[in-house]
Write a structure and sequence with these properties.
Structural class: alpha+beta
Largest sheet: 8 strands, mixed
Number of helices: 15
C-alpha cells in the first residue's frame, strides 16, 4: 500500500513539474486552448483527446504530353475524427498558384501562369454540387448540404483537369519530353485542433501542411514514357518490357547501381510496353502527399540499401536524369549513402518509406519518397542538396509539420542534418566552412531588423532574409547549440522522444519544446525562450581578464544574447595553447554575462573567443592581448 502511495505521489509530482515547465513559454491563445482541451499535453505527447482527420484517396490520373494537360478522377473517403460538426469542407489545390489572380510572394513570368483548375464534376455522398472551381485560389470552400457530424465520413467524387505550367519550379514542364507533376490533385485541406480549417493560401514561399492519408492511384501515360512516383509500383510487368521489368526487380535487392534504361534503350523504344497508353499503378499508406514525374528521354538508374539493420529492410533508390545531367550519375550511390547514414546516425531512425527517387528538374525540393533537384555542375554541391532534400523525409514527412506556419520546424532540421552528414562526407573543416558561408555569413553580417525577429514568428508573417534565416540558419543553430549543451546521447534521446511522440501526427513548436524537456529530463525552457522567443543574435565580447596567484578569471559579455557554445583559446607567453570549451549552459544563470575560471601559473599572451559555426557579429572584441 505504501508503495502504491509513493508511486502515486511520484506520478503527481512528475505531472506537476511538466505543467510548470509548460507555463514558462508564451503560447498563442488558440494553442493554449488546445492544451486546455487535452488534445495536446504538457509532457510533449499528443493529449488524451488528440485527433486528426484522415482521407483514403483513389485516383486515376492521365497526362497528355502533347497538350500538357493533367486530368483526373478521384474518390476521397474522408473521416471527420474531430469533436466538431463540419458545415463546410475546404479543398486545397496548390497548382492554382499559377492562376493570374492568385496571391504570390514574388513576381513571375508569363510562362509561369496558367488557367488553373477546372472541375467538371463534384459530388459529396452522391449529391451533385454545382462547383467548377473557377473562383478558387489555392483553397476553396464548399458549403455542405448536410453537416458532417463528429465520427462521420463523407465520400467526395471529383473530376478535374489543369494545364502544367510551361515554366517549371516545384512542378511543371522540365523539357518537351519530361514533366514533374506535384500537388496535382484537389485534396481536403487540414482541419486541426488549434486552427480548424487550414485556409492559408499557398504563395510559393512558405511550404505545405497536409493530413496523413492512404493512396491508391494510377498514372496513364503514352508508350515510351516512364513514370516515377511516390509509393510502390504495383504492376511493373504491365508497363515495362520483360527485360526492363526484370532489371527493376533485381535492383530492389542489389547493392550495386543498375542502369535500368540507357539513352539507347529510351531512344529505341525498348523500355515500356508498346501500347498506345500504359497505366502505371501505385499505392502507399499513411503519408502526407504523393507526386509523380514522367519522361520519354531520361536515363534510369536504380539500386537499393538496407536502412534497418534489425530487420534488414531495404529501400529502392532510383534516379531519372537527362543525358547531360552529370550531377546525377552518382545519384543512386549518394542516395544509398544518405539513407543509410540518416537511418543509423542522425536522426538515427530508419528511413520510413519503401523508395527514394531523385528526378532532375529545377526545384531543389523534397516530396515524400522523391526529390526534384537541379543540375548544379558541381558534384559535391549536388550531393549536399540531395542530402538536404532527403533529410526532409523526417521533417516534415515523418511528422506532419505545419510548414506554412512554422517553417523552422522542418527547414531548420534539414539544414542541421545536411551539416551533420556533411561532416561524415567531407570532414568537419569542410562542413564548417560551407555551413558558415552558406547558412550563417549573410545573416550575421546583416544588421537589419528583419534578421532579428523571433524564430517563433509565423512564417507567413515573414519575408525576404527574415524568412530565410529564421527558417534555415538560425533554427539550425538553435538545434546544434542544444546538441552541444545536452551531449549527443541525451540530445538523441530527447529528439527520439519528440519524433516518436509525433510520428504520423501534427506537432507544433510547443510539442517540440515539451517533448525535449521530457526526453532530456530537464527544464530547457530558459534555452527555448532565449532562442525562439527573443530578438537575440550572436555577439560575444571579452569584458575583463584578471589573474591572481595562478587563478585566472575571464568575464564575457553576451552582447547579442543568444546562448551559444564557444571555445576559449588561451595562448601563453611560451607559445603553448589551451582550449576550454563552453556549452550554452554557461549562460543559464545570467544570459548577459558569464565568467570562465581557469588555473595556470604561466603568463598569458592572448585569449580568443571562437564560436566556430556560431559566427560573431563583431569579432574584433573577441580577442584580448597583453599590452
Amino acid at each position: 500500500m505504501k508503495r502504491l502511495k509513493l508511486l502515486s505521489l511520484l506520478v503527481i509530482a512528475t505531472i506537476s513539474i511538466q505543467n510548470l515547465w509548460a507555463q514558462d513559454l508564451y503560447m498563442p491563445r488558440n494553442v493554449k486552448a488546445a492544451y486546455q482541451k487535452g488534445t495536446r499535453a504538457a509532457d510533449g505527447k499528443p493529449g488524451k483527446n488528440y485527433w486528426q482527420n484522415h482521407g483514403k484517396y483513389n485516383m486515376e490520373i492521365a497526362v497528355n504530353p502533347d497538350t500538357k494537360i493533367v486530368s483526373g478522377t478521384e474518390t476521397i473517403d474522408y473521416s471527420n475524427n474531430s469533436k466538431d460538426t463540419l458545415k463546410s469542407i475546404t479543398i486545397r489545390f496548390v497548382n492554382n498558384l499559377h492562376k493570374p489572380t492568385s496571391s504570390r510572394g514574388g513576381e513571375v513570368s508569363e510562362d509561369f501562369l496558367s488557367a488553373g483548375l477546372t472541375i467538371t464534376s463534384f459530388k459529396i455522398n452522391g449529391e451533385v454540387y454545382n462547383i467548377n472551381g473557377k473562383s478558387w485560389g489555392t483553397t476553396g470552400e464548399v458549403r455542405l448540404k448536410k453537416p458532417l457530424l463528429p465520427g462521420q465520413k463523407a465520400l467526395l467524387n471529383i473530376d478535374w483537369n489543369y494545364p502544367l505550367s510551361k515554366e517549371s519550379g516545384r512542378e511543371g514542364q522540365i523539357d518537351p519530353t519530361s514533366m514533374f507533376v506535384a500537388y496535382s490533385y484537389p485534396r481536403v485541406s487540414v482541419y486541426d485542433d488549434y486552427n480548424g480549417w487550414d485556409r492559408l493560401p499557398h504563395t510559393d514561399r512558405q511550404e505545405f501542411y497536409n493530413d496523413f492519408n492512404d493512396y491508391v492511384f494510377s498514372i496513364k501515360a503514352p508508350k515510351n514514357y516512364v513514370v516515377y512516383a511516390t509509393g510502390d509500383l504495383l504492376n511493373p510487368d504491365e508497363v515495362l518490357q520483360p527485360e526492363f521489368a526484370a532489371r527493376l526487380k533485381k535492383s530492389y535487392t542489389s547493392d550495386e547501381v543498375i542502369h535500368i534504361a540507357t539513352e539507347q534503350d529510351m531512344k529505341g523504344g525498348k523500355v515500356t510496353l508498346q501500347n498506345d497508353w500504359n497505366t502505371w499503378k501505385f499505392s502507399v499508406n499513411n503519408i502526407v502527399d504523393v507526386c509523380f514525374a514522367l519522361s520519354s528521354t531520361y536515363l534510369w538508374d536504380a539500386g537499393s540499401v538496407i536502412v534497418d539493420n534489425k530487420t534488414n529492410r531495404r529501400v529502392s533508390t532510383q534516379a531519372a536524369y537527362d543525358v547531360k545531367g552529370t550531377d546525377f550519375v552518382n545519384s543512386v550511390k549518394n542516395n544509398n549513402y544518405a539513407l543509410a547514414w540518416f537511418s543509423n546516425n542522425w536522426p538515427g531512425i530508419p528511413y520510413p518509406f519503401s523508395k527514394m527517387t531523385a528526378f532532375q528538374g529545377f526545384a531543389d525540393m523534397e516530396y515524400p519518397g522523391m526529390v526534384n533537384d537541379s543540375q548544379m555542375g558541381d558534384a559535391s554541391f549536388a550531393q549536399l542538396v540531395q542530402d538536404h532534400e532527403i533529410a526532409h523525409t523526417y521533417f516534415p514527412f515523418y511528422m506532419g509539420i505545419n510548414e506554412t506556419r512554422y517553417a523552422f520546424m522542418d527547414e531548420g532540421w534539414a539544414t542541421t542534418l545536411e551539416y551533420l552528414i556533411g561532416i561524415a562526407e567531407k570532414g568537419k573543416e569542410a562542413a564548417d566552412k560551407f555551413y558558415k558561408q552558406f547558412r550563417v555569413n549573410s545573416y550575421i553580417k546583416d544588421k537589419s531588423a528583419e534578421e532579428d525577429q523571433p524564430i517563433i514568428s509565423m512564417s507567413t508573417q515573414l519575408s525576404g532574409a527574415g524568412y530565410g534565416n529564421n527558417s534555415y540558419g538560425k533554427a539550425s543553430l538553435s538545434y546544434l547549440a542544444l546538441k552541444d549543451m545536452l551531449g549527443d546521447a541525451t540530445f538523441k534521446k530527447a529528439l527520439h522522444t519528440y519524433m516518436d511522440n509525433w510520428n504520423g501526427k501534427h506537432p507544433i513548436p510547443w510539442d517540440y519544446f515539451n517533448s525535449m524537456n521530457t526526453g532530456s529530463g530537464q527544464n530547457l525552457n530558459w534555452f527555448f525562450n532565449n532562442w525562439f522567443f527573443s530578438n537575440n543574435y550572436i555577439d560575444l565580447a571579452i569584458s575583463k581578464v584578471s589573474a591572481t596567484a595562478g587563478k585566472n578569471v575571464l568575464s564575457i559579455k553576451n552582447e547579442g544574447g543568444f546562448a551559444i557554445p564557444f571555445d576559449v583559446v588561451i595562448t601563453y607567453a611560451d607559445g603553448t595553447k589551451q582550449t576550454l570549451h563552453q556549452t550554452p549552459t554557461v549562460w543559464k544563470a545570467n544570459q548577459k554575462l558569464a565568467t570562465v575560471n581557469f588555473a595556470g601559473a604561466k603568463k598569458i599572451a592572448s585569449i580568443v573567443l571562437d564560436g566556430g559555426i556560431f559566427m560573431d557579429a563583431t569579432p574584433v572584441d573577441n580577442t584580448w592581448k597583453v599590452k
